[in-house]
């Protein structure tokens, strides 16, 4: 199951820029091995914003919840991070569906 995740990070007033970057560094150190392992299909930083977009491949909704709840950035900044989640599927699958529906 593929999901598009859009992370929006707001720096709490209680932490410094350095502290935020330290948390983000731990997040990157956790995420990059998942990219290499193929669990994360795409991972992108949105230029000029404190936002990251990811495409992940999970086996269940429960696995998605588990992954999200164990991310360093969520554990350490929880209320300061908004995550938008959307189920996605390959466009080729959609094309096959519309061919069928068009008949």
UniProtKB/TrEMBL annotation:
The cross-references to InterPro entries, in alphabetical order and at most eight, read: Dimeric_a/b-barrel, MLI_dom
State the Pfam families in the record. MIase (PF02426)
Q: Which residues form the Muconolactone isomerase domain?
A: 1-91
The identity of this protein, by name, is MIase like protein
């Amino acid at each position: 199951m593929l999901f598009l995740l859009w992370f929006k990070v707001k720096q709490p007033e209680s932490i410094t820029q350095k502290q935020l970057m330290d948390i983000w560094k731990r997040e990157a150190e956790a995420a990059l091995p998942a990219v290499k392992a193929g669990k994360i299909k795409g991972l992108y930083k949105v230029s000029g914003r404190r936002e990251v977009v990811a495409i992940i491949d999970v086996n269940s909704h429960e696995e998605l919840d588990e992954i999200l709840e164990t991310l360093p950035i969520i554990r350490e900044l929880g209320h300061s991070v908004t995550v938008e989640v959307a189920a996605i599927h390959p466009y080729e699958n959609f094309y096959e569906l519309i061919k069928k529906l068009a008949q």
